[in-house]
Design goal:
By secondary structure, this protein is of the alpha/beta class. The protein contains 14 helices and seven strands. A seven-stranded mixed beta sheet has the order 1-7-6-5-2-3-4. A hairpin with a 3-residue loop joins strand 5 and strand 6. The two termini are 40 Å apart.
């Protein structure tokens, strides 16, 4: 599977290559192109090497300088798409963690099928308020956010998750058994979270699968956490950013990986037994 960060960088590189080809096609050097655009030649090099994303104005100046103004609009759309694939957390959390939770509400309501795989945490859709507050609090501290609104964000996450009780949506959620064992928050919060999984996993619209630690891996090993929304978007969570994938061929790869992992999971009574063992391990 192509790394999601590589996919975003590849999309940027396509735009950079098209701009470079336009410059060369016009017979201009890097310095001549820069002079025509009114900036330093180093900026031209950074754009052509996909190190700096061009703005819409940059692209229009570039196309005007090489005599290809008719291609500007298409290049701008392509560049915006490449940049939207890769969203740094420092930008997305600028207005706080609560706003980040609220921003997804409308999109969630428009989605019919949610497929989530997590190797590290209980999926947000099934998190309790105490568990969510612990997760978001860790995130706020790690990212040195100026304001820690993780408690309010946790409430917003739980409110957003009420969608699992609404008609018109299906949820297929997979977690590695290790997720049940990672201590997030205090023992009381962890026990409440595991207890919630026992009831949430029995909801009519929810399919909760757990991949046992002892599973013999034949098709898929533990992957990065990813969410598949219908068949139109894949969201992948990295340490520094969230990557949004809309290319059908790449979405198909994630769906394939999800189905392989799904076959390795246990459900129903077998899944509940693993959760109960994790609760007992809390002492």
């Amino acid at each position: 599977m192509t790394l999601p960060s590589s996919s975003a960088q590849s999309a940027r590189a396509v735009v950079a290559r098209r701009l470079r080809d336009l410059r060369k096609g016009a017979g201009l050097t890097v310095v001549e192109l820069a002079r025509g655009c009114g900036w330093h030649h180093a900026k031209t090099s950074r754009i052509e090497n996909a190190k700096t994303a061009p703005t819409a104005t940059d692209i229009r100046l570039w196309c005007r300088t090489v005599g290809s103004e008719g291609q500007a609009d298409d290049l701008i759309v392509q560049s915006l798409h490449a940049e939207s694939m890769y969203s740094e957390w420092r930008h997305r959390t600028r207005s706080g963690l609560k706003q980040l939770q609220d921003s997804a509400v409308t999109f969630f309501r428009q989605t019919e099928l949610f497929r989530v795989y997590s190797s590290t945490l209980v999926p947000g859709l099934l998190q309790t308020e105490g568990y969510a507050a612990a997760v978001l609090g860790m995130s706020a501290r790690f990212r040195d956010l100026p304001v820690d609104d993780s408690v309010e964000a946790a409430r917003a996450r739980v409110d957003r998750s009420r969608i699992v009780h609404e008609r018109g949506h299906r949820f297929v959620l997979l977690v590695e058994e290790a997720v049940l064992r990672y201590r997030v928050g205090d023992d009381a919060a962890m026990a409440a979270q595991l207890g919630h999984l026992l009831t949430a996993g029995a909801l009519p619209a929810v399919s909760l699968g757990i991949v046992p630690a002892a599973t013999k891996r034949q098709d898929q090993w533990p992957r990065e956490t990813f969410h598949v929304y219908d068949d139109t978007l894949v969201s992948v969570e990295l340490v520094s950013a969230q990557v949004r994938i809309t290319q059908p061929s790449e979405i198909a790869l994630y769906v394939r990986a999800f189905e392989d992992l799904r076959r390795s999971a246990v459900y129903g009574a077998a899944a509940r037994a693993l959760i109960v063992k994790a609760i007992e391990a809390l002492g």
